[in-house]
């Protein structure tokens, strides 16, 4: 890979910020994306998916979407779940189980607060800063 100049890095950061803003602006629904690749399934991701689905009642069904995806590339931390809530950074949580799904549902999705201790990935704070 070729070396990048400081200007190239700034352009890349701006492009990432724009992509994140577009992703958040596409819909007003909350998205729960559970990794159900082979590694996730072996680690119990189906139970995590079922747990999230069980928390959604008729009232929330119009605003919360539970989806599945393949491997997120974080096999060492399976099962993994990406939570996308409008107005918050998209976050990937790892080493999930049913109890963690309940905690994340109550605190992150309902309470709009990030859950420390299981966060694997989220955008850098300065990428999310809007000028």
Account of the 3D structure:
The structure is a single chain. This protein has 131 residues and is of the alpha+beta class. The protein has a single domain (28-128), classed as Glutaredoxin, CATH 3.40.30. 41% of the residues lie in helices and 17% in strands. It has five helices and five strands; from the N terminus they run αβααβββαβα. Strands 2-1-3-4-5 form a five-stranded mixed β-sheet, with helices on one face. The two termini are 31 Å apart.
Provide tags for this entry.
single chain; 131 residues; alpha+beta; Glutaredoxin; five-stranded mixed beta sheet; globular
Helices and strands in order:
Elements: H1 6-25, E1 30-35, H2 38-43, H3 45-55, E2 64-69, E3 81-84, E4 91-93, H4 98-110, E5 119-121, H5 125-128
Parallel strand pairs: 1-2
Antiparallel strand pairs: 1-3, 3-4, 4-5
Rg from Cα:
16 Å
State the total count of DSSP E strands.
5
Q: What structural category arises from helix and sheet content?
A: alpha+beta
Helical fraction: 40-55%
3D shape: globular
pLDDT < 50 runs, ≥5 residues: none
CATH class: Alpha Beta
Number of domains: 1
CATH architecture: 3-Layer(aba) Sandwich
In short:
It contains 5 helices and 5 strands; from the N terminus they run αβααβββαβα. With 131 residues, it is an alpha+beta fold. It has a single domain, classed as Glutaredoxin, CATH 3.40.30.10.
């Amino acid at each position: 890979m070729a070396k990048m100049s400081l200007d190239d890095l700034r352009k890349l950061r701006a492009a990432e910020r724009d992509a994140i803003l577009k992703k958040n602006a596409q819909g007003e629904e909350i998205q729960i994306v559970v990794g159900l690749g082979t590694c996730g399934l072996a680690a119990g991701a189906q139970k995590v998916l079922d747990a999230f689905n069980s928390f959604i009642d008729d009232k929330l069904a119009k605003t919360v979407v539970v989806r599945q995806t393949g491997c997120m590339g974080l096999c060492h931390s399976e099962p993994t779940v990406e939570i996308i809530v409008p107005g918050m950074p998209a976050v990937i949580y790892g080493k999930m189980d049913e109890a963690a799904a309940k905690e994340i549902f109550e605190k992150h999705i309902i309470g709009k607060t990030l859950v420390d201790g299981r966060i694997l990935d989220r955008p850098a704070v300065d990428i999310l800063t809007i000028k």
